[in-house]
Amino acid sequence: MATLNVNGYDVFVRQWHEQQTKTIVCLHGFTSTSATWETLAHALPEYRVVAIDLIGHGASAAPEQGSHYKMETQVALLEDVFEALQLETFTLLGYSMGGRVALSYALTYPSRIEQLLLESASPGLAREHERALRKQADDALALRIEREGIEAFVNYWERIPLFYSQTTLPAEVQQAIRTERLAQREIGLANSLRGMGTGVQPSNWHRLEELEMPVILITGELDEKFCLLAQKMQAFLEQSAHLTIPDVGHAIHVENPAQFATIVKEALALT
Q1: Label partner for 142 (CA 20 to 30 A): which of 48, 71, 102, 131?
Q2: What percent of the chain has pLDDT above 70?
Q3: Mean pLDDT for the stretch of residues 96-115
């Protein structure tokens, strides 16, 4: 574990099996941190696993000005981090918000990516009125976080329908997820929503056909919205596969870590 100072930003990085030559980089979702990938990392001893706290999350910087959180800024910051880590090419895995970041990075720096794994991710919103409505909702949620604080927000967030399937997880797993969320900072989460939420990030639907590397879309059977999104995305991707995992929802790597690790292992074996 280390904190890198890159272009004035503190970026927290976890690494496992640094001696290995083949690398997978993992990007977490909203309210999470690089720690969410620890179970996966232990299942991949033959690979260097790099996980990063995205801006506003975990131990990375959480600037007060929202302009620091734009998707373009996060993508450029990741590239600087990868250069600092002397990474040349790698598999890139992103979950939910981290999936949107991973997709945006792959479109900006395609020569870096051997293959792209997207867990419960989207290319953004295609229509302007959809983006406007989502921005309005995200801005309201950001204000709520600032006004009510982290604990009240987490109490609300862990009960939204997207995470309903997590209520059946063992108590210790649910507590670990809650603890990770409670450790976040109000300004970081609020500005993340304002700066690179689905409503403000550039739509990448029209750019999916640019991706020439293999893309694996992973969704949970109970997460109908993202299953449909993955099916739609496939129509625009040159090389892709869509895997639907039974009896799980949005966070497959948390809800069925063993099967998720098997999927990632099989994907890495192809590179």
Answers
A1: 102
A2: 100
A3: 98
